Amino acid sequence: MVVVIGGGASGLGVAWDLTLRGIPVTVVEAEEIGAGTSGRFHGLLHSGGRYVISDPVSARQCHEENRILRRIVPTAIEDTGGYFVAVGDDTAYEEAWRKAMDQAGIPAVFVNREVLAARLPGLNPEQRGGYWVPDAILEGFRLLYLLRDNVMSHGGTILTHSRVVAVHEHNGCVSGVTLRTPEGLREIACSAVVNAAGPWAGEVARLFEDPLPMHLASGVMLLFAHRRVPVVVNRLAYPGDGDILVPHGETVILGTTDVHQPYPEPPVPTRDDVAALIARGQLLFPEMTEWRALRAFAGVRPLYASQHGASSRSVSRDFAVVDHGARVGFAGAFSLVGGKWTTFRLMAERTGDAVAQFLGIQAACRTAETPLLPSQSTRRGSPSPIVCECEGVTADDLVAWISSSPEEWRARTWWAMGPCQGTMCVHRGLALTAPSDVSEWRRQLKWVREERERGFWPAAYGDNAREFQLQTAVRYQTLGEGEAHAAL
Q1: Which contacts qualify for 258-263: CB closer than 8 Å, 24 or more apart?
Q2: Which of 11, 134, 195, 207 would staple 47 via disulfide (CB 3.0–4.6 Å)?
Q3: pTM given for the model
Q4: What is the pLDDT of residues 173-195, one digit of tens each?
């Protein structure tokens, strides 16, 4: 048995890899699936172009994994392609970038300024043209739940709202873990433990008496209410703030800032963060101040570095598999640190190789050629009544996961995540769960509203503020939410 700590892309990827090798796995996640960094990113499936100069190793990894993921999980990828747009007069960087792309074997096709302006309405008229690259949109939550479902269908166990509080050893080898669960403490015997806790990896490694040097950096992203661009758009420059837009459903995400972070929890975005992002985004789309900024959110990059003083822009996006047995004699304890969403499968493969070798199991990685199959419970696109108009979510889509939490509903279907942020559909959805349990309905309603509003306030200006007032009036005057909240 192997215990994997962390229910994000890294942890679930490792679990899937080990499961296909025939190794029993239990994943332990302190919150919900994807509650950390994996659920807080801009959704880019990298072509490698963004890091081809600053981090060529990661760029080549991204390019190869991009092609693999398109084969094994096409249902979680929207193949839009992307553009790197040249703005300003920095032709030296452009030339260096083109040479680096050629050397890395990453396709980049020049598009002249007239064609680019026609394809991207509102683009900065001072742009000098750009390059098409094989970027795409990665539906992170959809892929996370595909991993979860496939791990479980192959005999793996997923424990959420549970935390590993101790790792035990016998004769210098891992022998088991102690979990704190909603039901109390629980012991699990195991032969190996993989720490895939993302920003918390450094703290979890203390359980192995071998803390790791992490370089944490927070990144704020901004969600606009309408799909202003049809494809991924990058500014052709050294990676910086506000230089990428990624469409998602009927919205688009602008990312991202880069600020040193002293702790693993993501910060609460501020109005200054939003203003700074938009100011940078205007280099690509000058009229961005007129777009409706719907909400802001932040994630934490779990970079692995030995020098905390360096800017995280200069820290490699490469990853490392740390063998704590070799470092401090805690045999069977491993940590997976660093990396990117796009490279999660490769990260899991390298970790699986190390764990299988330790366990003496001769089984090769199979994830590169094994498709992740959707659960038979998934019924997206069925003809049942529409519950969420913004994202086209039907009653059957939600009933398929009737025993799940509202958070899992959001992740699996994008319910309540569109431009209206669930003004009406929250009531419709929750009415499907437990219509006779009024107290539970009120609790869930309060949770959803607070979760949605948390990211709204930094972007509460202009049309967004006016629309929020309208939404509030509908919720309280038409739907009677004031009475529901008062009863809690």
Answers
A1: 258/217, 258/218, 258/219, 258/301, 258/311, 258/312, 258/313, 259/217, 259/218, 259/219, 260/215, 260/216, 260/217, 260/311, 260/312, 261/199, 261/216, 261/217, 261/218, 261/300, 261/301, 262/216, 263/216
A2: 134
A3: 0.88
A4: 999 999 999 999 999 999 999 99
